[in-house]
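ATP synthase subunit b (Pseudochryseolinea flava), 164 aa
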Amino acid sequence: MEFLTPGSGLIFWQFVIFVGLFFLLKALAWKPILSSLKERENSIEEALSTAEKARAEMARLKSDNEKLLKEAREERDRILREAREVAARMKDEAQLDAKKAADKIVEDARAAINIEKQAALKEVKIQVATFSLQIAEKLLKKNLAGDKEQKELVENFIKDAKLN
């Protein structure tokens, strides 16, 4: 039962040792412990402020990055728009040039066809005239085979000449 109810001498010596240990710790350990706690508190505050600065810097960098991405997208869209416009202009010019070239080819073909047509008509006229002369020559030779027919033809020409 002694363990449950300590004696008064034991309590006194425990109190004396506690007070002595308290003053010894206060004199020797309390200041270093408080200074190390203060240093730890300062380092934690510095780490928090550094983290806050880093967070703010990251937010600023993210904002700048988003701004640059937006500008890059706008520049890309502008370049694509200009490229489409140039391509459309080039396509229109190429179509116009092709149409002009086709029109010129058609006009040249029409001119060549007209020239060939005129040449063919001229050739036909020449052949018709040649055939007509040949036929007339053969008829005259046949009709004027004798002197009597020749005299009748001359008399007919004279009569026609007098009437006119």
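Residues 8-163 form one domain. The chain has a mean pLDDT of 88. ok done for today
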